[in-house]
Amino acid sequence: MATIITPSEVPKYVPGAVTVASDDLGWNGVWLRGYRYAGLDVLVPPVRDFTIVSYCRGTTVMERRCDGAWTKTHCAPGDVSLLTRSQLSHWHWTEEIDVSHVYLTEHFVSGICAEVADRCVADVRLHDVLKSHDPIVTAAVAAITGEAQQQALGSAL
Predict the structure, then answer these.
(1) What strands, in cross-sheet order, belong to the sheet with 129-133?
(2) How many percent of the chain have pLDDT more than 70?
(3) Mean of the pLDDT values across residues 108-123?
(4) How far apart are CA 134 and CA 151, in angstroms?
(5) What is the pLDDT of residue 124?
(6) Which residues contact 80 (CB under 8 A, 6 or more apart)?
Protein backbone atom coordinates (compact mmCIF):
# COMPACT_ATOMS: atom_id res chain seq x y z
CA MET A 1 0.00 0.00 0.00
CA ALA A 2 1.26 3.46 -0.92
CA THR A 3 2.03 6.00 1.75
CA ILE A 4 -0.78 8.49 2.39
CA ILE A 5 0.37 12.08 1.87
CA THR A 6 -0.92 15.37 3.26
CA PRO A 7 -2.11 18.20 0.99
CA SER A 8 1.14 20.09 1.69
CA GLU A 9 3.06 17.19 0.12
CA VAL A 10 1.11 17.23 -3.17
CA PRO A 11 3.63 19.58 -4.91
CA LYS A 12 6.36 16.94 -4.46
CA TYR A 13 4.38 14.70 -6.82
CA VAL A 14 2.50 17.28 -8.92
CA PRO A 15 4.94 20.16 -9.47
CA GLY A 16 3.42 23.55 -10.20
CA ALA A 17 3.53 27.19 -9.21
CA VAL A 18 1.47 28.00 -6.11
CA THR A 19 -0.89 30.89 -6.97
CA VAL A 20 -2.78 31.14 -3.65
CA ALA A 21 -2.69 29.29 -0.33
CA SER A 22 -4.54 29.27 2.99
CA ASP A 23 -1.56 27.72 4.80
CA ASP A 24 -1.25 30.36 7.54
CA LEU A 25 -4.89 31.41 7.90
CA GLY A 26 -5.90 29.10 10.75
CA TRP A 27 -8.69 27.35 8.88
CA ASN A 28 -10.10 24.25 10.55
CA GLY A 29 -10.84 21.20 8.40
CA VAL A 30 -10.61 23.11 5.10
CA TRP A 31 -7.40 23.91 3.27
CA LEU A 32 -6.90 25.65 -0.10
CA ARG A 33 -4.08 25.73 -2.60
CA GLY A 34 -4.18 27.24 -6.08
CA TYR A 35 -1.73 26.01 -8.70
CA ARG A 36 -0.59 26.83 -12.23
CA TYR A 37 0.36 23.58 -13.91
CA ALA A 38 2.06 22.87 -17.21
CA GLY A 39 1.05 19.66 -18.95
CA LEU A 40 2.05 16.71 -16.75
CA ASP A 41 2.01 12.94 -16.46
CA VAL A 42 2.15 12.12 -12.75
CA LEU A 43 1.52 9.30 -10.32
CA VAL A 44 -0.04 10.75 -7.16
CA PRO A 45 0.08 8.81 -3.89
CA PRO A 46 -3.14 8.63 -1.86
CA VAL A 47 -3.98 12.05 -0.37
CA ARG A 48 -5.22 12.11 3.23
CA ASP A 49 -8.14 14.46 2.56
CA PHE A 50 -11.13 14.61 0.23
CA THR A 51 -10.34 17.03 -2.62
CA ILE A 52 -12.30 19.35 -4.87
CA VAL A 53 -10.35 20.51 -7.93
CA SER A 54 -11.85 23.55 -9.64
CA TYR A 55 -10.57 24.36 -13.14
CA CYS A 56 -10.06 28.14 -13.30
CA ARG A 57 -8.04 28.92 -16.46
CA GLY A 58 -7.08 26.95 -19.55
CA THR A 59 -8.62 23.90 -21.15
CA THR A 60 -7.14 20.44 -21.55
CA VAL A 61 -7.94 16.82 -22.16
CA MET A 62 -7.69 15.28 -18.69
CA GLU A 63 -6.96 11.59 -18.16
CA ARG A 64 -7.00 9.87 -14.78
CA ARG A 65 -6.52 6.29 -13.73
CA CYS A 66 -7.44 4.78 -10.40
CA ASP A 67 -8.53 1.22 -9.70
CA GLY A 68 -6.99 0.15 -13.02
CA ALA A 69 -9.28 1.97 -15.49
CA TRP A 70 -8.50 5.24 -17.32
CA THR A 71 -11.11 7.99 -17.51
CA LYS A 72 -10.74 10.67 -20.17
CA THR A 73 -12.61 13.97 -20.50
CA HIS A 74 -12.13 17.61 -21.48
CA CYS A 75 -11.79 20.04 -18.53
CA ALA A 76 -12.33 23.80 -18.75
CA PRO A 77 -13.13 26.70 -16.42
CA GLY A 78 -16.33 25.97 -14.50
CA ASP A 79 -15.60 22.23 -14.29
CA VAL A 80 -14.69 20.45 -11.06
CA SER A 81 -13.22 17.09 -10.09
CA LEU A 82 -14.47 15.52 -6.85
CA LEU A 83 -11.90 13.14 -5.38
CA THR A 84 -12.22 10.70 -2.52
CA ARG A 85 -9.45 10.38 0.02
CA SER A 86 -6.69 7.77 0.22
CA GLN A 87 -6.82 6.83 -3.49
CA LEU A 88 -3.67 6.22 -5.56
CA SER A 89 -4.09 7.87 -8.97
CA HIS A 90 -2.28 8.52 -12.24
CA TRP A 91 -2.99 11.82 -14.03
CA HIS A 92 -2.13 13.01 -17.54
CA TRP A 93 -2.87 16.33 -19.30
CA THR A 94 -1.03 18.33 -21.96
CA GLU A 95 -2.06 21.99 -21.65
CA GLU A 96 -1.29 24.68 -19.06
CA ILE A 97 -4.10 25.06 -16.51
CA ASP A 98 -4.85 27.00 -13.33
CA VAL A 99 -6.74 25.09 -10.66
CA SER A 100 -7.85 25.54 -7.08
CA HIS A 101 -7.65 22.54 -4.75
CA VAL A 102 -9.94 22.56 -1.73
CA TYR A 103 -9.00 19.84 0.76
CA LEU A 104 -11.58 18.66 3.30
CA THR A 105 -10.47 16.56 6.25
CA GLU A 106 -12.27 13.34 7.16
CA HIS A 107 -13.31 14.92 10.48
CA PHE A 108 -14.83 17.91 8.66
CA VAL A 109 -16.75 15.71 6.19
CA SER A 110 -17.87 13.42 9.04
CA GLY A 111 -19.33 16.43 10.83
CA ILE A 112 -21.25 17.51 7.73
CA CYS A 113 -22.56 13.97 7.20
CA ALA A 114 -23.70 13.79 10.81
CA GLU A 115 -25.57 17.10 10.47
CA VAL A 116 -27.12 16.50 7.05
CA ALA A 117 -27.80 12.77 7.00
CA ASP A 118 -27.59 11.86 10.67
CA ARG A 119 -24.95 9.28 9.66
CA CYS A 120 -21.22 8.94 10.09
CA VAL A 121 -18.99 9.29 7.01
CA ALA A 122 -18.15 5.56 7.17
CA ASP A 123 -21.78 4.93 6.17
CA VAL A 124 -21.58 7.24 3.15
CA ARG A 125 -19.88 6.12 -0.07
CA LEU A 126 -18.14 8.99 -1.88
CA HIS A 127 -17.34 8.31 -5.53
CA ASP A 128 -14.65 10.05 -7.54
CA VAL A 129 -15.94 12.23 -10.35
CA LEU A 130 -13.30 13.37 -12.86
CA LYS A 131 -15.56 16.04 -14.37
CA SER A 132 -18.71 17.71 -13.17
CA HIS A 133 -20.11 21.08 -14.14
CA ASP A 134 -21.71 22.37 -10.95
CA PRO A 135 -22.07 26.17 -10.66
CA ILE A 136 -22.70 25.96 -6.90
CA VAL A 137 -19.50 24.02 -6.19
CA THR A 138 -17.55 26.26 -8.58
CA ALA A 139 -18.88 29.39 -6.82
CA ALA A 140 -18.06 27.93 -3.39
CA VAL A 141 -14.47 27.19 -4.44
CA ALA A 142 -14.18 30.69 -5.95
CA ALA A 143 -15.40 32.20 -2.66
CA ILE A 144 -12.92 30.13 -0.63
CA THR A 145 -10.15 31.13 -3.05
CA GLY A 146 -11.12 34.80 -2.70
CA GLU A 147 -11.00 34.56 1.09
CA ALA A 148 -7.51 33.04 0.91
CA GLN A 149 -6.32 35.72 -1.53
CA GLN A 150 -7.63 38.60 0.58
CA GLN A 151 -6.85 37.03 3.96
CA ALA A 152 -9.92 38.88 5.23
CA LEU A 153 -11.35 38.78 8.75
CA GLY A 154 -13.99 36.23 7.71
CA SER A 155 -11.54 33.87 6.01
CA ALA A 156 -11.31 31.52 8.99
CA LEU A 157 -15.12 31.19 9.00
Answers:
(1) 17-21, 30-37, 97-104, 50-57, 79-83, 129-133
(2) 91
(3) 79
(4) 26
(5) 62
(6) 52, 53, 54, 55, 129, 131, 132, 133, 134, 137, 138, 141
101 close to 10: Cβ distance less than 8 angstroms: yes
Task: Name the band, by pLDDT with cuts 50, 70 and 90, for residue 76.
Answer: very high
Mean pLDDT of 92-121: 89
Sorting pLDDT into bands at 50, 70 and 90, what band is 17?
very high
> Taking CA 31 as the corner, what is the angle to CA 26 and CA 35, rounded to the nearest 5 degrees?
125
Task: Report all structural domains of the chain as residue ranges with CATH numbers, in order of start.
Answer: 7-150 (2.60.120.810)
